[in-house]
Design brief:
The protein is mainly β. 0% of the residues lie in helices and 37% in strands. The strands form 3 sheets. Strands 1, 3, 8, 9 and 10 form a 5-stranded antiparallel beta sheet that branches. The chain starts with a strand and ends with a strand.
Length: 114
């Protein structure tokens, strides 16, 4: 049993990491099959090596100050998914919502290897 964590950060320019659902058009293929609509894998779901269990995105620009708070929605994002890399099939045992630490939100996932 292993615990994997990812941090959802908020940056000084008011941009932030986000978790998004799987591609709506199915363009991601089997890699995104274990994700629910919220972008996090379902409890009890078998996860094959190479599959995404948290679909995280980070802002492309975290340094420049945004002129308008409404511009946060227009920030470009790049993919930073959490991919299962163990040699065998794993299962999602716990997928809690996480807690907050300062300005960051932590998502922990407990996966069990076969």
């Amino acid at each position: 049993m292993r615990k994997y964590s990812t941090v959802i950060k908020k940056y000084p320019n008011q941009s932030f990491d986000r978790i998004v659902g799987p591609p709506p058009d199915g363009s991601g293929g089997w890699k995104f099959d274990v994700l629910e609509n919220d972008g996090i894998c379902a409890v009890g779901e078998p996860i094959d090596p190479g599959q995404v269990y948290i679909n995280k995105q980070t802002p492309a620009n975290t340094n420049n100050t945004l002129q308008d708070v409404a511009a946060v929605a227009e920030v470009g994002y790049k993919a930073a998914p959490m991919v299962y890399r163990a040699p065998g099939v794993g299962y999602a045992d716990k997928v809690p919502g996480g807690g907050t630490f300062l300005r960051m939100r932590v998502f922990s996932t407990v996966l069990t290897d076969e």
